Amino acid sequence: MLSKNDNALLTRVGPGTLMGELIRHFWLPALQEEEVAVPDGAPVRLRLLGEDLVAFRDTQGRVGIVEARCAHRRAGLFFGRNEEGGLRCAYHGWKYDVTGQCVELPTEPRATNFRERIRITAYPSEVRGGVVWIYMGSPDLAPALPDFEFNRLPRAHRVVTKRLQQSNWAQAAEGGIDSSHLSYLHDSKTDTSRTYLRMDRHPVFDVKEIDHGLMITARRNADPGQYYWRINRFLPPFYTLPPTTQGRKGWSPGTYKIDAWVPIDDENTWNWAFVANPDQPYSEPEREAFGARDGFAGPLDEHYRPLLNRDNDYQIDRERQKNVSFSGIEGVPNQDAAMQESMGPIVDRTRENLGNSDLGIVHFRRLMLRLAGDLADGRSPHAAANAAVYNVRPAEVLLPDSVPVLQGAADLLRGSASETGN
Ligand code: FES
Ligand SMILES: [Fe+2]
Predict the structure, then answer these.
(1) Residue 422: pLDDT above 50?
(2) How confident is the model over 66-102, as pLDDT tens digits?
(3) Cα of 97 to ligand 1 centre, how many Å?
(4) Which of 92, 240, 323, 372 is most buried, most CB within 10 Å of its CB?
């Protein structure tokens, strides 16, 4: 459990909050590249860390992400005209370039220098791996993009999807760290890849802080003389790397998934799923199976909200819950969303009762609260300035019971070498 104050500190991310400032030290995935694919195409609404923004691709192909409202009398720039190298407000025609600078001010006399003084907030963005990344922190720090392996792979080796989750980011991220729910929430009689998860439903957990993140190991008894290890990772500020279950239907050997839990505001979160296989490309049907068209959780509406959602109780099927699957809900991310959204928009952590299996979650909170405390004392998070920390993978592995897990799994846990030397 957490105190009321610590719960607020962990979960509040708007401008001026400590956690919000901490997360602003990192690059965040903001949009699918295809959402702003067309120069002079329609502007796109975007909300991150409680700030309303608008994204557009200008005539030269540069992506701009600017505050949502015009500096003149605050009309919404979403309704603006994206033309001739900038976004023009539909109200009185003031126009801004991708840096937020006002470049035309047709309502005022030419002689004044009023225009030069007008600017709206604009955040740097970079397109990598099919995603538009945004940096909302201090321009003085301007870190390099995190060196995720999936960002360097050709398109055929990765599938990137996002979905709306209607809960605070932290309880969503905690779901990504929580290994023990696999034997329950996601269990299904039709899935034959779960032998070891079923053989031992009482894993032994250990958590170590390594390379600015967490390494959360779950050890299960397997065949005699062997342990089945699942190594789950957390990287600040919101990445979870759940281990893949090899043999899972449709997951070619080498496939792994990394989740990002990006706060939209205190009560809504983007769940990005980065599915990658560095060893072999996916076929188009495989890409579609990972949601390239429909979303990882199954069909989404045009705002990336899953069609199975809290308004329809995720279409829980009580018959299937009795006879086929533990949850009765279709799709792993929908099962997670049902649990995490049902906690309330911001879970009341003063009322929890944590057990041994929640060790990873305890460490996640401790780490994030410590980083926030460090920031309050003037110390920026190291991981934000350390792109190489992100070149890692999750792992599952069977090892002789005499081999220490981090030794036995060392090669599996590294991403392939980056050309930039990271
Ligand atoms: S409100 Fe935008 S130009 Fe007037
Ligand atoms: Fe889950």
Answers:
(1) no
(2) 999 999 999 999 999 999 999 999 999 999 999 999 9
(3) 15
(4) 240
92 C-beta closer than 6 A to ligand 1:
yes
Contact 208, 407 (CB under 8 A): no
pLDDT reading at 421 higher than 60: no
Residues of the chain with CATH 2.102.10.10: 33-135
Mean pLDDT of 229-244: 94
CA angle 35, 240, 154 (to 5 degrees): 50
What is the spatial distance between Cα 368 and Cα 255, in angstroms, rounded to a whole number?
28
Q: 61: CA distance to ligand 2 center in Å?
A: 38
Q: Average pLDDT, stretch 125-148?
A: 96
**Model-level pTM?**
0.96
Average pLDDT score, the chain? 93
Tokens 């909200």, located at residue: 305
CB of residue 81 inside a 6 A radius of ligand 1: no
Tell me which residue has its CA closest to atom 3 in ligand 1.
92
Ligand 1 atom nearest the C-alpha of 107 is 3
Sequential DSSP letters for 332-362: HHHHHHHHHHTT-SS--GGG----GGGHHHH
Torsion sign (Cα): 169, 337, 32, 119: negative
98 CA → ligand 1 middle, Å: 17
> What pLDDT does 419 receive?
61
The mean pLDDT of 121-135, rounded to a whole number, is 97
Atom of ligand 1 nearest to the CA of 73: 1
